[in-house]
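Annotated sample (chain length 269).
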Amino acid sequence: MDFKKLSLCALCSLWLILNSSVANALDMNDVNTSDLATGICKQDAKNYFKVSFEDAKKTFLNSDNLILLLMAGGGSIAFRETGIDDRAAEHFEENGKMSKDLDKFTDILGGPGPHFAATGIWYLMAARNKDNVNLQRSWIMLRALGVTGATTFALKAAVRDHTPNDKDWAWPSGHTSSSFTVAAVLDEFYGPTIGIPAYLGAGFVGYRMMESGDHWASDVLFGGVLGYVVGHTIAGNNKDFNIAGFKIQPLVSSFHDRPAAGIALSKRF
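Output written by the structure step:
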């Protein structure tokens, strides 16, 4: 089975499901159209590409991010020119011990298509349950994956490199960039308890891509940095929970001369 085609089909199917589900929900007579979750779904479906484009600009116009990406790009060139790529490929070819089942399992779960599909399910379940926190978190994950996927595809199309096993479009590794995006977003949302295992999983995906001969070490290096940068930037800029555009903030005040604590809704106009 061609898992690149499978990933593409999963992405297309997810987008169709997302749009049709939102449309059906809004057409139902028993749906309260003022419900926050429904309103967010409708807005998200309409603004996905526009918002993702804004996310991309904020990510790639950030000077710190550009430095990291340029360093990763320079590292990729150094890996290729100094023979590190060739030596790593030879090492994995001679010493690779991953079982076929584990290899296939990692290849499937580490791909962009399953990442989009799993996040889409997360999003739709949160919308159905009117869980605004997870609705926003899954929405941010979808945006981060979209920016990573589009950037990875554009770079692959521009470079048109070949993998150690002579497949097309090697640099950068899409599996690695997508996996590190997922890990970075989860790290922003849930901290190291979830973030560290997620990074270990993403690293294992990168390892698998090299051992299988599907990617050079330079492909994995840049893919990992790209995913890290995109995931942390988009999630970090948008992880504050809000309701109907209002940001939730802690409130400390006094009531009848007694200290009181609670929450406040704020919005800049």
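Annotation: Confidence is low (pLDDT under 50) at residues 1-11, 13-34, 248-255, 259-263.
Annotation: Residues 3-238 form a domain with the Vanadium-containing Chloroperoxidase; domain 1 fold (CATH 1.20.144).
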